[in-house]
Design brief:
The chain contains 3 helices and 26 strands. It is α+β, with helices and mostly antiparallel strands.
């Protein structure tokens, strides 16, 4: 019976018909090697991508005003203030937000004032009390003067002694001195009330001049102090106001060219954010101080036209003109780029224009340079991003990596 239950060899199921196990191990190793090789190639590829600095092509100044020099700088406000309180207190109201326009004297914030209000009420009550004492002293003086007149009449008729008249005269003098003392006390009480009123007024923060709120530094419930109290729980300011009418441009001019810049010299400013907008300007003053580290001299430039597009700390390029530009005349052809942006490739002048993460080589035609800037007459438009100091290995359509701004 047991022999009949035995399975013959040709009746067994084939469990070992697939690929051997070592084949699967080999395939897994090959996949890992392929992925490693791909990652290494990608890392090597990324390491070969050059890191470059990027600038924008700038529009040239208007016709009729030949630029003798160009410099870069920033828009600054000559009138800006961080508004704070004159006493330490807790904010109960903040009545502004960033971007709000305020006028001189407008209430910006309020501090908790219960204690100061009580002190002010007490000081005013003291003034009233002192004034009442003055009136009482004045009445006593009037009575003493009446008594003196009667005593003088009686003494003249022989019905009273001279001693009584002298006593009445002394009483008048004493009451006059008492009235003067009460008046001085009333003046002191009034001065104390005025001082208390000043302290109470310090709980209200007002705008020192008209302008725009550019920063909100504190919130309701925070403690504000004009002095640095240490730690991170006390604010030293409520907000910052900028007078937009006081905006001007500060530029750093290389000291080798500062002799070409004079006060009242016409100029033209172009904001980095609006390369097609040319703003007429003029030189306010050349600051008589040089920066030893940068070898530059600061020049203040006034903007003759302003609107909401001009805000503090904007980058700007200023062209100093030999003559005032004609606003109606067409601007000269071409754009301005750093001289380092124009390189030679295969005997032609080329500028690399940034398109995403790639650089496209574009042949250009140069004109007469303006100061430290190259003039590109053909091949570029204002505002186009370009590569400055392109490396030798950079070719048309090559990958680039923008460098962090300096």
């Amino acid at each position: 019976m047991l022999k009949e239950l035995r399975i013959q060899g040709n009746e067994r199921e084939d469990h070992g018909g697939g690929p051997p196990r070592w084949v699967w191990v080999l395939l897994a190793v090959l996949v890992v090697l392929a992925l490693s090789a791909g990652g290494g190639w990608w890392w090597w590829r990324q390491s070969q991508v050059p890191e470059v600095q990027i600038a924008n092509a700038q529009a040239r100044g208007g016709a009729g005003g030949s630029a003798v020099l160009q410099a870069t700088g920033y828009v600054t406000a000559r009138r800006a203030a961080t508004v704070s309180t004159q006493i330490t207190g807790t904010l109960t109201e903040v009545l502004f937000e960033e971007g709000d326009r305020v006028v001189k004297g407008q209430v910006l914030a309020r501090l908790e004032d219960h204690a100061l209000r009580a002190s002010l009420d007490m000081a005013r009550a003291n003034v009233k009390s002192a004034l009442a004492n003055v009136e009482a002293a004045r009445a006593q003086l009037a009575q003493a003067q009446s008594d003196l007149r009667r005593q003088d009449e009686l003494a003249a008729s022989g019905m009273s002694t001279k001693q009584a008249a002298e006593q009445a005269r002394t009483a008048v003098a004493a009451n006059a001195a008492q009235l003067e003392a009460r008046r001085r006390e009333a003046d002191a009480a009034a001065a104390q009330a005025a001082q208390t009123q000043v302290n109470f007024d310090y709980t209200v923060v007002k705008a020192p001049f008209s302008g725009v709120i550019t920063a909100k530094a504190a919130q309701v419930g925070e403690i504000v102090s004009p002095l640095s109290a240490g730690g991170g729980f006390t604010r030293t300011g409520v907000g910052t106001i900028v007078d937009m009418e006081s905006l001007e441009v500060d530029v750093d001019v290389n000291e080798a060219y500062i002799g070409q810049v004079k006060a009242d010299m016409p100029a033209e400013a172009v904001l980095d954010a609006y390369p097609d907008w040319r703003i007429p300007a003029h030189v306010i003053a050349v600051v008589p101080s040089a920066d030893r580290g940068k070898a530059t001299v600061k020049v203040r430039v006034a903007l003759e036209k302003k609107d909401q597009r001009v805000v503090p700390d904007m980058g700007v390029r200023v062209s100093f003109l030999a003559a005032k530009a004609d606003a109606q005349a067409a601007p000269p052809p071409g754009v301005l780029v750093p001289k380092s942006a124009v390189v030679s490739r295969d005997g032609a002048d080329v500028v690399f224009v940034v398109a995403g993460q790639k650089a496209a080589a574009r042949k250009v035609k140069q004109g007469t340079p303006v100061g430290e800037q190259a003039v590109v007459l053909d091949g570029l438009k204002p505002g186009e991003p370009i590569v400055t100091n392109p490396p030798e290995q950079l070719a048309d359509g090559g990958d680039i990596k923008p460098a962090a701004p300096r």
